[in-house]
């Protein structure tokens, strides 16, 4: 029992030295990296358990390389999801174009304004499908501005067709 207690106290006595040397390795390394925020570097290495416990520069390099592999893999996964979502958006926008082209054709042929309105109204909601697809897979929708603009334009067109349908044009 005394041996275990002595080992415990010996470990506690060594701990500040280990922490100081780890901190020293991180501080020294981060202060020497060109074109890198010192505070960012220290924050990243201190927060990463293998970085915080590294005893030399090689250990820090291994820790940051492993962290980089993890982050890059995560980014690749996110990009793969984004490609799938963008492909879904392409399908939505092709459908939107089909609706609008059919409505324009109906306008030229003098067809019923109610049918034209229905097509343009459906088209005006198509960008929302793209927003939903992108929102589910990305923190920031890279198409948000374009989707909003396309939705607004389609709503204007459907609003005009609505006025035509109800004889208010």
UniProtKB/TrEMBL annotation:
Record key words, sorted: Disulfide bond, Signal
Domain of life of the source: Eukaryota
Signal sequence, start to end: 1-21
Record-linked SMART domains: PMEI
Protein's UniProt keywords contain Disulfide bond: yes
Gene Ontology MF terms in the entry: enzyme inhibitor activity
Stretches assigned to the Pectinesterase inhibitor domain: 21-160
InterPro entries: Invertase/methylesterase_inhib, Pectinesterase_inhib_dom
UniProt entry tagged with the keyword Cell wall biogenesis/degradation: no
NCBIfam families reported for this sequence: PME_inhib (TIGR01614)
Sequence similarity: Belongs to the PMEI family.
Identification of the protein by name: Pectinesterase inhibitor domain-containing protein
Species of origin: Aegilops tauschii subsp. strangulata (Goatgrass)
High-level lineage: Eukaryota, Viridiplantae, Streptophyta, Embryophyta, Tracheophyta
